[in-house]
What does this fold into?
Amino acid sequence: MSEALSPRIVIVGAGPAGIRAVATLVEAGLHPVVIDEGQRAGGQIYRRPPAGFTRTAEQLYGPEAAKAGALHALFDRLAEEGRLSHCAASSVIAIHEGRLHVLGESGVQVVSYDRLILATGASDRVAPVPGWQSAGVYSLGAAQIALKAQGVALGRRIVLIGSGPLLTLVGAQLVKAGADVAAVLDTSSWRQQMRGLWGLAARPLVALRGLAMRARLGGRYHAGVTLERIEADGKGVTAMRWRDAGGRQRLTACDMIGMGWHLRAETHLADLAGCAFTYDERWRQWLPKTDRMGRAGNGVYLAGDGVRLLGADGAEIAGRLAAAACLADLGYQAPSTSADLRKLARVERFAGGLARAFPWPAAMVRALPDAAVVCRCENVSAAAVREGAELGSGEANRVKSLSRVGMGRCQGRYCQLAAVELVASQIGCAPDAVGRFRGQAPVRPAPVGAFLREG
Amino acid sequence: MITAGRIVRLAESDRAEVHFFLDGQMRGALAGDTVLTAMLASGHALRKSEFGPEPRAGFCLMGACQDCWVWQDEGPRIRACSTLITEGMRLRTTPLENWP
It folds into this structure.
């Protein structure tokens, strides 16, 4: 075998992008290393339950069952045939000088690479709503993961808030599974949603499926709402206080709230790998810079929602493209990419429609009361962020040091965008002028003991 | 076995029962439950916030928010959303008072 001579390519993340990248490399005769936080490959959207669960792929993934099944089967076959190395339940916590520091059950190990493909995905883009630190408030993704991977609803009476495709999807999935969904509250108005129509028409079947799911929500769904606050007692959430599109005050009793405004790219590792970033106006967030294929320079490639928020289908395409770029750069015969590049353009147009139809609630964040919590990790208030904005002259990392927003255990993943919005509003500048929080290793909390065995 | 907690089981309830200890009290769960599912099947919170008065019960369930770390009797903390419950596991909602 020429394995020792062939370049070592490491892929981080085994979701749709990571799996397609792996398969493309294996087809070219390479033996990639896959590092993934999941127990089983699949990522979040096609997440698999633990062994011993019995629901079918159709029950778990609905209309996407065939795609999910194909990805799972492909990965499992390549793993069984010994054509890849799979580090499951492992987190890359640092990248330094071409080496990854990987936290697994046996401690931290160092893995070197010649080429690195990051397919780290995304998590919910959340915006603070007063009271969101209460027990029983979850991300929309959490509600979906609980249902898929555990077969549970996270509450007895559920209210979903936010905007974006996941809002409708999670609502419909919960209703179908028998959960009590009291209300689905969309901060985007019908009129705003119509503005995304031209882009959404790029994938008419997907758009129609979304509308059909919306129809299944019936009277639970309300567009153009204003979210006032989450009511809670000593045990957790008790109600959602909101105003409907007509301005009427509403109070919906519930013990669980799921929230999310579409997605936020997971970019910490791209940052540590030295990628350049650019502020994306469409997505209202900082994204790593790559070419069309996913090349970020210095032997690093990015694919999937961690670089462009295109969803699972776009991630599969991007995974193949990044691997093809990697192969071409190494002098290997790369598969043809013209069809994938055409498909990429179509999913990008669709994603642009989604971004327009379901925008980030900038005005809501800017109007946040002073007492509201912005950082859930350390309960940093909006007042503290505003004060930090003045003292830190509106620069993201200075505001972070002064107010501690973004310094908690999630490392700013769930507060950064809101904090930047508040700072921009306080200083009177655009969000991109505030800058972005620097990524810091370790990107996941790691026990000190894990480093004692590092090697 | 399972008293009213935060979560509702909608499917997959035909699994073997496992037992664990929470603050010294025996609780029941199902094999394949995460620690988060197991704890919230019969309770309403995982821990108390260090920075506010409110209890916490997790947030993202995908290992990103770090809101669901819980203590174990023997010291090390675990992330409840990404750790499966095992028979005899001993968990705590607060750190041991005499922890070194």
